[in-house]
User: Fold this.
Amino acid sequence: MPLDLDYYQKLLEEEKTKLEGELGDIAHRNPDAPEDWEANYPEPSVNSPAPDEKADQEEEFANISGQESALEDRLHDINEALERINHGTFGICAVGKEEIGEDRLRANPAARTCIKHANQ
Assistant:
């Protein structure tokens, strides 16, 4: 039975919108590379923060950067899956070229590989 590409495209586009919203809360697009996001540095609570407040800002920025990186990686995966739909290769394992099981695609519509090749 062929895959319902409209269903998967809708799922992927919904997740893309959600990810872009979450990224917009903690990051901004790089003006030189709009597909790239950069974490926002936290605003200081006062004009010249005390050293411990500066350390708190640095820690918060590290946390935001980690979140931004994970969200951006997922957004990249989603965009690649949408490209695979456009190119007729969605649902085909990038390693073994066999069909990716529908259970796997329902769990992760951006999956590039079948279960057998998931760690490659």
Notes: The chain has a mean pLDDT of 92. The longest helix spans residues 51-87. The CA atoms of residues 103 and 109 lie 10 Å apart.
